[in-house]
Amino acid sequence: MSKKLTPERREALKKKLMNDLEEQVDTYLDWYDSIEDIKFRDIENQVLETRHQIGAQLAQTLVEEEASGQATALRCPVCGGKLQRKGKKEKVVVSLAGEVRLKREYYYCPHCQRGFFPPGPDDGDGIGME
How far apart are CA 63 and CA 80, in angstroms? Predict the structure, then answer.
């Protein structure tokens, strides 16, 4: 198993994730502090919403990290033809972890007449990550 992160990149990524988590905790505590007559169901619902937000943020950060570390192949993974860069495109994917916004380089193969988000063809999840 190869490591994807240098020690420096790992530390920077950890810092970003911890800052994101701290913001979510502050939001949760602000909510908690604003409720006078709190019920268990209120706490439970807010915990589930906070968990959902944290999961979506974590997925977003790691998808962005994965996309930034991929080497861009300039050849079509289907026919081997030369790909044309079409700029960055944004796509919203609703995942099990929540809504994730992807903004990645988009390529088009004039021979196959198909578009690709690296690292390869869309495998049915709409994001082109295998």
Answer: 26
